[in-house]
Amino acid sequence: MGTITAFGDSVIKGVIYEDAHYRVADESVQKICEESFGITIENKARFGSTITKGESVFEKNLSLIKDSDGEYVVLEFGGNDCDFNWKEVSEDPGREHLPMSTISNFTATYTNIINEIKSLGKTPVLLSLPPIDSARYFAQISRGLSGENIMKWMRNDQQFITNWHERYNIEIFKLAIATQVPVIDITSIFLEQKNYCRFLCEDGIHPNEEGHKLIAKAIEEHVKRRNIKL
Fold first, then answer.
1. Of 15, 153, 145, whose CA–CA distance to 76 is shortest?
2. Distance separating alpha carbons of residues 20 and 181, to the nearest angstrom
């Protein structure tokens, strides 16, 4: 049985949002993939992790990666990096607000992690991002805050949330090309569905259990299509 090490945020961790609470899904992408491929996944993903926090977790696990019998290290970041401090936006919509990770910091830090994995003799594999539902996510982030002020900062364009999120997703594909590492497209399988939002939790950003099945299916198809041995 091979081993894969994974770093990322709540998506790869398997977190879902139900009844106003977060929990790890019973049928998470990790569980499905472990059973499907007959592998063990050392999942070091963290809820709310940005690429900077992920780098810190990664550095603490260098020996685990180096000593692993597996070739692949899966990376899934971006969903939190593109987020903003919505409380600050709500309180002062007239000033400039930066995301948790600027694009330049996101790409630079991600590149460093990728290169370090290569130096350990392992193969980094990037995951793209699942799409989000702007309406549900806006309702989530504006809860207890001034939705009017947040909308003012977004120039009354709720779609800004989805567009900005996709900006980071595009960067992931560009990173894969620039660093010559594999990227697994888990975005398209959502977009191919009629009303993909039914595969997202009520917060509009976390895939639900059916969404995790879609992600696992995208990974399985990628592995099969390229005849990858795990």
1. 15
2. 37
What six digits make up the tokens of 14?
Answer: 């398997």
pLDDT at 170 over 80: yes
CATH domain 3-83+101-130+166-225 topology:
Rossmann fold (3.40.50)
Going by C-beta distance under 8 Å and a sequence separation of 6 or more, which residues neighbour residue 15?
Answer: 22, 23, 24, 25, 47, 206
CB 179 within 8 A of CB 109: no
Structure tokens, 96: 């400039």
3-state secondary structure of 215: helix
pTM higher than 0.85: yes
| pLDDT tens digits along 178-216 | 999 999 999 999 999 999 999 999 999 999 999 999 999
In which element (H, E) is residue 124 found? strand 123-127
**130 to 11, 67, 83, 121: CA distances (angstroms):** 9, 31, 15, 29
Whether the per-residue pLDDT at 2 is higher than 90: the answer is no
